Amino acid sequence: MHTRPRLLTSIPFWVLVVGSLAAIIGGLAIVLNGITAMEEVLNDPNATVVQVYVGQSWVVVGAAVLGAGAVGIVAVLALGAASALTRRPDVAVESIDWSSDDETVAEPAVAAYAPAAAAAPIAVEDADVETPSTATAPARATAEAGHDAPKLDAGARHDEPRLDAGDDATRR
Fold it and tell me: Taking a C-beta distance cutoff of 8 angstroms, is the pair 27, 65 a contact?
């Protein structure tokens, strides 16, 4: 089924077309009137300064309106090209059986909410540890845990702790 493009039924599109054409026609009329008036005034030896320079201002205003209309026409052409290049998905139309008296709709089956039973707390332990966290640490682990603790130097005062510099010969 071939459908009419949506752009042709769009009211803002047609407002843009009509407004652009009106701006072009109006701007052209202002420019031509201004140029004609300037020619008449410039050829008249009794013309005043106001008559000469006001005509130039009207021509500039008319040119701006004419330019706005031209930009509108370019926008209309760009919208038309974009509309022609974009692809619209096919729309499936469902026919309604007006002779049917069936007005019921099958309701979807929804399972009732049942809260889960209270679960036991989960004990999380490291995967590489083989002993439970409640067991006491082995003697070697206790000794290694105090390795980086501050040590006192033989010549240092007791209130100045000195960190181990790592000069333990057993670790080399």
Answer: yes
